[in-house]
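re: ur question from yesterday

yeah so i grabbed the chain u mentioned. its 350 aa long if i counted rite. heres the sequnce exactly as i have it in my notes:
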Amino acid sequence: MRRFAAAVAASILLAPPVAAQRLDLSAMSAQIEAGRYRNIEGIRVQRGGEVLFEASYRGNNAETRVDARSAGKSITAIAVGMAIDDGKIAGVDAPAFAFFKDREPFANDGPLKRGITIRDLLAMSSALDCDDWTDASPGNEERMYDTRDWTRFALDIPLAATYARAPSGLGRYSYCTAGAFLLGRIVERAMGERFDAYVQRRLFDPLGINGAVWAKSPTGEVQSGGQLSLRVRDFAAIGQLAMDGGTVGGKQIVSRQWLGEMLRPRAKATPLDAYGYLWWVRDWREPGKPKPWPGFYMSGNGGNKILLFPDLKTVVVILSTNYNRRDMHELTGALIEQHILPALVAANGG
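ran it thru and got these structure tokens back, copy pasting raw so excuse formatting
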């Protein structure tokens, strides 16, 4: 899957425009309105920036902003790439903790902690004993939220006792919001600018995105590990930027080289998903059909998805507030595989 997905990631950056055709997803909408998929807030499907389908549910409208939770991590990956493009971060092999000399000493310090790189944090493969999928993990994000100084919490996380790097250079995959939060602080320190201000200036302003609502720590630190509220069309614009090789209006916002690196699978995250730099990779399928449709996507608690189908030149946004439900991602996946993907394939000539 990795080799195929990497080739597809490269194809995103060279994809020519395809003529758009409106999709009939009335049956899907009827099921959403009937409560089949619970709290779906809005959906948008677009190709080449042209809207194929858009709908708001549960009393929302086009201006409603939804907290897409960890989908915001993928924006942090773009921000890291822009800071590298701007010459303020040397590259992903830069040691992460070197950006925090003013916060020394660190608890649990030593060569292993000092050897953690920006790449390790992007790929969720650092030596920190941090696993949001395990309640008892010392670095679990819920423990961070109980503290006042999130940066201090993240810097002081213990090290994983059995950590070792594979031949790829990366350690084991372990989903860690605190690591993504540290990446935001690194961008701030490298740029000399608040993370939210930098993202607004370099990314959101060129895309016409305004009114972003960022979560913050008790001390005012911007949560770069998620909890960002935007409109459906805002998330679609970010997906379209990635689909278009980092350009908008003829201006290069983030380099093609970075996008290719960002979307390249680095680890097996779940039985169905690979993981790049804070982006997910999965093969999606129509019901009963074996052909895979590779997709690169942003994902967050509640079932939020911003999905790129490079072979179909299409961006799909589903904003959902099915927070903390065991079936939240399955519900969104069903919308994609049972309704949206079949309609896209049919419109594309099968």
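noticed a couple things. The first helix runs from residue 2 to 12. also The mean pLDDT is 95.
anyway ttyl
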